[in-house]
Request: fold
Amino acid sequence: MNARPVLSVRGLGKRFTLHLRGGLVLPVLDEVSLDLNAGECVALVGPSGRGKSTLMKCLHGSYGADVGSARLTLSDGATTNLLQASPREIIELRRREMAYVSQFLRAVPRVPALDVVAERLLDALGFEADADAESTDAALAAARDHARTLLARLNLPPGLWQLPPATFSGGEQQRVNIARGFILPATLLLLDEPTASLDAANRRVVIELIDEAKARGAAILGIFHDEEVRRAVATHEIELGAAHAIAA
Reply:
């Protein structure tokens, strides 16, 4: 008997209403269905405007879907419908079950890059800011050590680790973003152009990180416009359908 998919999407639909265009309705996603198993990396393909990033954001809870379901099997074996989860539930899922690497880094201003990466691990492990000093120091030191390992692997110069990433180049910010996404093993890993702005050496590192995540059993859904990267990591590909605008 085959194992239950980690992610099972059925009939997902999403429309945008363009109020500045007289209420024009843009059906970006129409009846999207897919299954994603542990250890797989499914690549979403198709021209711009087909809804690849929109699908990612619906699964991550950044956008609400109009119809359909997206059932995620959690690490404890329970299941949840991502499209019906409350904001509080989505926050908890993002802490422990889902990781999302987009093309853009969003971080609290003035927080050093090292702590931007380490914070995700501390948050997922339930670190409490009001814990006793000894526990606080130990947890923070361990998380920072893990963050240092990833940042070094991604060739971010140590001189930048204590600086806020808002001052970094696009490629440097993306490496911080990737380190934050991969610091904690995730049940579902969403990758939206993770190698954008990266040089060849760091693209190879990202390929290695994805392969290691697959070996751990992560289910990965990705957008990879870089064909070399896509061929290297994708188990198979899914092409999304074309979108058409209709009058409201």
Q: What stands out?
A: Helices lie at 52-60, 87-96, 113-124, 133-153, 170-182, 200-216, 227-233. Residues 133-153 form the longest helix (21 residues). The mean pLDDT is 90.
